[in-house]
Amino acid sequence: MTEIKSSKIDGIETFEAEINGERIEWDSELTYNSHLQTERLLSSQIGVSGEPDETLFIIIHQTMELWIKLCLHELRIVIECIKSDQLSKSFKTFDRISAIQRHMIQSWEILATLTPHDFLTFRGYLRKASGFQSHQYRELEFLLGNKNKDLIVVHKDDQVVYNTLTQVLNTPSLYDETLILLSKKGFAIPSAILDRDWSKPYEASPEIEDIWRLIYEDTEKYWELYMLAERVTSLEYYFQEWRFKHMKTVSRVIGHSTGTAGSSGVNYLLKALDLSFFPELWSMRTKLSTDKEENGPRCPL
Description:
- The protein has helices at 32-36, 38-42, 54-83, 87-111, 116-120, 135-144, 159-169, 174-184, 191-194, 206-217, 223-254, 266-272, 279-295; strands spanning 4-9, 12-19, 22-27.
- β1 and β2 form a beta hairpin.
- It has two domains: 4-38, no CATH class; 53-295, Up-down Bundle (Methane Monooxygenase Hydroxylase, Chain G, domain 1), CATH 1.20.58.
- The radius of gyration is 25 Å and the shape is globular.
- The protein starts with a strand and ends in a 6-residue tail after the last helix.
- The protein has a three-stranded antiparallel β-sheet, with no helix packed on it.
- By secondary structure, it is mainly alpha-helical.
């Protein structure tokens, strides 16, 4: 029997034991399990069907919600850095969000092991519950700029969630704050963009496209803004990849059946792929490439 020694350090009961040649210490104040709330976490997979494959379905979606929670946390840090013009400080956090997004994309591979037969064993038990009701996902879209006030109606019965989404809906998004920063730095951002109703979807502007082109054409002069633009673009790049993998996973599992909440399922997810958070950062690339080709060196033949 391994001998356990105990003592008190700063009034906290502390334990020590030699296990496999290693001295292991722990105390009664804070443990791995109490810190991570593992008992609550591991008892939260409560199925409604009794079917074995429902556990996979629950865990995948619960972990997605946890990663979205972390994305929201990190995105708020990024926004505060942009508001205070601490761009270099934001880049590490941007990179962390991208790493989280790549992990979330890979998660769909696990759910894709759920065959149509597997899902049908418990799908009927889910009734009208669907990802459409994920308030964290909606909040993430709002923070990134996909504003649509009609989408929060499904949260009307939860006043706390509804109020949070309403507040985010009426707050400048990541892209809005980026354009506000460009204005502070002397770029001619149209007043209609700076003074607009934040609850409405952002509409692409040729003036904004020209500003991004200017930044990309002189990266040495605007290096920090250029790096900011690339990291902002990465957020949408990975977000769209996540959407695409979501759509293909749903297609693989249920085909073109309607969603549990009554949506068109795959067709609804396909429409989401056409939405862009930062339109000018994408459209600018086409014109930038065209200009380079037209003004660049030509073949003597």
